[in-house]
Amino acid sequence: MHSNPGQAHDFYDGNPLAERNTRWALLLTVVMMVAEISAGWVFNSMALLADGWHMSSHALALGLALAAYAAARRYAGHPRFAFGTWKIEVLGGYTSALFLLAIAGLMMVESVERLLSPAAIQYDQAIGVAVLGLLVNLACAWLLKDDHHHHHGHNDHDHDHDHDHDHDHDHDHDHAHAHDHDHDHEHEHEHEHRDLNLRAAYIHVLTDALTSVLAIIALTAGKLWGVDWLDPVMGIVGSVLVTVWAIGLLRETGRVLLDAEMDKPLSTTVQQRLQQRFPELPISDFHLWRVGRNHYACIVAVSGGTTHTPAELKDVLLDIEGISHLTIEINPGVRSENQ
């Protein structure tokens, strides 16, 4: 048994490289944000202003990402967090997505107003600032790109807990440390191992880069062919793009926060593995939820009618990558609802 319950269930991996790169990206974003918003008002460009407003929201989002990293690191191992502090980072990503939706709404309103009430634009200056903004956005995107190849912070001190409940309510606790490797689902876990807090920051700067591209296209077309209306139209297109990306991020982080991942292939893998090894095993309860970037907790309850021990069931599941906290319950006096 671990002497410290808080440490025994801490699945926070940490990501110092991502935290450092996020700090640099925040600095670049703040500097460019001030330049673009100022230039947008001076040169009267809606697309340029929209890009600057994006950057203001992204600066706030990057600040939230840094705060989430700091909080998760500070409270890692604290006993009041049942499974560690990883979800602080996920909450930071979810909040960033909400800010994306808010700024998309603001962009839409302002772009429509400018479309209905057009104003003269100083194209040369506006294009120059937009190009500079794009370069800054690309630099930030490079800093915040998927860190999977840089960071494999798997806490391989996996905690597997097996509980055997008989009529006298005696409990047998079997603790094991396993290095989980299941190559059948390598692609699935390759996708899930990403840092959702970092991904939220990355989406912010990437959407801003896309908006910069739209601004450059609109301003260039306006200068060459006099299509002034294209500038606010690109602002509208940008708001739609931001909305789409934000909704995707909300779904991804929301599923984790609400433990709504029972439909993951990993869930099917666990149940199929048990059914193949023990075809008549009466499983009465099953739960799977994420407790870390690379870690899942799993509860399997078996009703009456089996002579197998928790250790036997555990051995069948230990090599499945991602199962870091495994609880096996055998209740001889409980019949399965499926029987």
TrEMBL record:
Keywords, alphabetical: Ion transport, Membrane, Transmembrane, Transmembrane helix, Transport, Zinc, Zinc transport
Gene Ontology molecular function, alphabetical: zinc ion transmembrane transporter activity
Membrane topology value: Multi-pass membrane protein
Region Disordered: start-end pairs: 151-191
Ranges of residues in domain Cation efflux protein transmembrane: 25-258
Record field: transmembrane: 24-43, 55-72, 84-106, 126-144, 201-221, 233-250
This protein's GO CC annotations: membrane
SUPFAM superfamilies reported for this sequence: Cation efflux protein transmembrane domain-like (SSF161111)
Biased composition annotated in UniProt, kind: Basic and acidic residues: 155-191
Cellular location(s): Membrane
A GO biological process held by the record: intracellular zinc ion homeostasis
PANTHER family on file: PTHR45755, ZINC TRANSPORTER 7 (PTHR45755:SF4)
Protein name (Swiss-Prot/TrEMBL): Cation diffusion facilitator family transporter
Organism per entry: Venatoribacter cucullus
